Amino acid sequence: MPDMRFAPPNPIRIADRASGMNAVSVRSYNERLVLSLLLQNEGLSRMEIGTRTGLSAQTVSVIVRSLEQEGLVSKGEAVKGRMGPPTIPLSLNPEGAYSVGISLGHLHTDVVMIDFVGQVKFYTSLPIPSDSETTNHSKLVETVRQALDALPDKQAGRLAGIGIAMPEDQDELALGPIGMADRFEALGKEIEDAMGIEVYVQNDITAAAAGESMFGAAKTLDDYIFFYIGARLHHRLVLNHQIFQSRVQESKPVGLLNLEERISKTTQSPQALWQRGQDWPDYGSEKDRWVADCVNSLRESLDAASQFLPVSTVIVSSYAPSDVCIEIADKLSSCTQDVEVAAGHLQLSPKALGAASLPFSSKFTVER
Amino acid sequence: MKTVLCFGDSNTHGQIPGGTPLDRFGHTERWPGVFGQVLGKEWHVIEEGLSGRTTVYDDPIEGDIKNGKTYLRPCLMSHAPLDLIILMLGTNDLKARFNQPASEIAMGIGCLIHDIRELCPGPGGHCPEILVVAPPPMLDDIGEWEGIFSGAQPKSHQLAHAFEVIADSLEVHFFDAGTVIPSDPADGFHLSLEAHAVLGRALAQEVLNIGWSD
After folding, report:
1. Is A50 in Cβ contact with B129 (below 8 Å)?
2. What value does the mean pLDDT of chain A take?
3. Strands A313-318 and A224-229: what pairing?
4. Full domain range(s) for residue A300
5. Could you tell me which chain A residue has the CA closest to the CA of B164?
6. Chain B from 44 to 103: CB within 8 A of any A CB
7. What is the model's pTM?
8. Contact check, Cβ <8 Å, B210/A48
């Protein structure tokens, strides 16, 4: 029997440099471990990576070198420590990978493209097609192509995939045109066929929570309760980075739809509620009352959950203007004890950004 | 205090390009000297550079004393405990008399790594860190050495990749010297004074990047 020590070498990483990013299948668990760590922290030294992953210095050396050569990780300027030798901080290279996220809603479809550190490189919002249209969302593929055109030529191969945030709440789906849910269901495969790019589909609220975990306010949190204020009010539980969705699809009717109803009874137009990235006009006492009801509902959920869950952080996310989100977070915080409440960091379209995080987590991080 | 062994050939010995093994850059000029200066007093740098050293071959002309494999083990034992071993070899394996492709030369490096791991000459019987350094490619013009190194130039360009493959599969540190220094035109494969300084500094940074806990 031959001595296997002297069999042809079997490099874990450098199979072929010419092809750019390595195929997903060869990305080892240890590599994902290092990338996951760098998604959460920037500027780690090799030694810190070793300590926090439990990998040996030589294994870290091999992995970091190859991630650098692939352009996924980049070196910073040497930092002089208080004691000991200067260390070189390592971070994800923003241009190392890109991802497209699509959020499907009853009024709008949001499309974003983000880089490896979550910076938005392209954003647009399309009205959903009327039910008289014969093709399924023909503009969507075109828009995704536009997003990809925003990439410089040599980075075209760096697209990790397309994520779709899929609405599943029956009450919200009922708001759209007839047959919308079925059309949405079919979109993933249609995009994959039309573009030849891998598509990842996830429940929309879960995707928004995943986005906060990867790029937003929950980056360093293991456990938290996630509230999302959309047309209705939704919640998710995140424990040890896993996002749980209750078997019962339960959203509460104190979302933006409820605010819209209230405003509609006044002389003001509620139209700004459904716009992205735009401040609301002063809706006065109608908004204040809605905020109070919303906070109340959140507090009830939180009270119920805190009786058996050791969770001390709450993230409140919405595409509504950030001051509204912050106001709700602050009010909730002031009426609860021992719980920290923060507004989500993802704006414009947390669901679409969350959707864009899906290809990254699938390709670059460890399953948790 | 950390101890590092620099195990190499004439380019670790500090042989002046175009000269003989007795024409040697000074202690502080050759790369292990520069390397030691950058690392400072907490590091003890041992130079083990021999002109003509191969990875694992007995040289039929220069003699079996040039075989890196046979000398490595007693050398490790003499200098143990070692925290780090730097292997910078491969150039002499390119000689026509050995007739080996780059991948086989890399296998020779792999063989040395296995020997180190078998011996475990690190503190407390642990295995030391190992850093494989690929020499810079030879120049096309190597003057009167052309006969001895016939056909070596294209292979010398493949060494870095082949070494990296071995370093990767055996999980050891790797540095491609060709990314920071060229070979000197005086003979086409030795290192100039300037190259020694640059390499010494680059390797010191590489070693510091490993991260050492105490």
Report:
1. no
2. 86
3. parallel
4. 218-345
5. A14
6. none
7. 0.82
8. no
